[in-house]
């Protein structure tokens, strides 16, 4: 496995920092099918770590094990140096790990603010909230607008618009903004630009850069090699359930990455 000695995009080389999220020798099997075969991974503060690999390489299984959607058969997970065990996605969310899946998981009928607070709705103060269980709609809309503004999302001016009226890129922005708002430790993005046009993809990539500038580490799963090499600090390459290499855009070219990913070259 290749571990690069420096990350030229970050202010500090990764090996001088403690990882915020670490997986050690994860194993996951589905009957006779091996999804993960002793995979280790480190995510450092303020970096974008891309995970790439061919279909069936174990990318999705790895991410699911990191976020509680799957429970590894073997191995250990550490968050900020402390061992953690996620039995369900909610456990990971409680610990500050937010995931944006490829299908977005937004509710089209609800407005932008309601989607940002979906599952985390806030009640009004006092008796109205405690007894009558009334939601603080005005407050949630104000905070949603503030969060979108802090992320530099200018395409969503009206947080009262139903998500079903938004474009694909705007819907993705809502999902990413929700992750950024509540992901205090890690944001995981699964194919965030799939089925988006060039302009909308660029907006999502800029959101990823903005999250990094805020110091929030991002795990990016993508098949789009140019986008990976555009925003990633390091690239974790999966092949046949194992980590074939961990490289950087500075140490390897896209051709090198594809060769390692397909087995045409060894790291």
Automatic annotation (TrEMBL):
UniProt-recorded name of the protein: Fructose transport system ATP-binding protein
Keyword rRNA processing: no
CDD domains associated with the record: ABC_Carb_Monos_I (cd03216)
Coiled-coil region(s): none
Organism: Conyzicola nivalis
Entry-linked InterPro entries: AAA+_ATPase, ABC_carbohydrate_import_ATPase, ABC_transporter-like_ATP-bd, ABC_transporter-like_CS, P-loop_NTPase
Keywords assigned by UniProt, alphabetized: ATP-binding, Nucleotide-binding
Single GO term (MF): ATP binding
Domain ABC transporter: 21-265
């Amino acid at each position: 496995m290749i571990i690069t000695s420096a990350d030229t995009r970050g202010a500090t080389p990764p090996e001088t920092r403690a990882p915020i999220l670490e997986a050690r020798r994860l194993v996951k099997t589905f009957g006779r099918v091996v999804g993960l075969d002793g995979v280790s991974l480190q995510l450092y503060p303020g970096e974008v770590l891309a995970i790439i690999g061919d279909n069936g390489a174990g990318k999705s299984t790895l991410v699911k094990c990191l976020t509680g959607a799957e429970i590894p058969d073997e191995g250990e997970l550490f968050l900020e140096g402390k061992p953690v065990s996620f039995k369900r996605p909610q456990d990971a969310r409680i610990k500050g790990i937010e995931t944006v899946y490829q299908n977005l998981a937004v509710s089209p009928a609800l407005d932008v603010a309601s989607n940002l607070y979906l599952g985390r709705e806030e009640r009004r103060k006092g008796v109205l909230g405690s007894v009558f269980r009334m939601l603080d709609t005005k407050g949630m809309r104000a905070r949603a607008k503030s969060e979108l503004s802090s992320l530099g999302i200018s395409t969503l001016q009206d947080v009262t618009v139903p998500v079903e009226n938004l474009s694909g890129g705007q819907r993705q922005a809502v999902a990413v903004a929700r992750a950024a708002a509540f992901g205090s430790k890690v944001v995981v993005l699964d194919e965030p630009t799939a089925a988006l046009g060039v302009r909308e993809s660029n907006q999502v990539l800029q959101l990823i850069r903005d999250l990094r500038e805020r110091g929030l580490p991002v795990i990016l799963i993508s098949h789009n090699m140019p986008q990976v090499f555009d925003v990633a600090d390091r690239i974790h390459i999966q092949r046949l359930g194992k980590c074939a290499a961990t490289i950087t855009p500075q140490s390897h070219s896209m051709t090198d990455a594809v060769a390692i990913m397909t087995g045409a070259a060894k790291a």
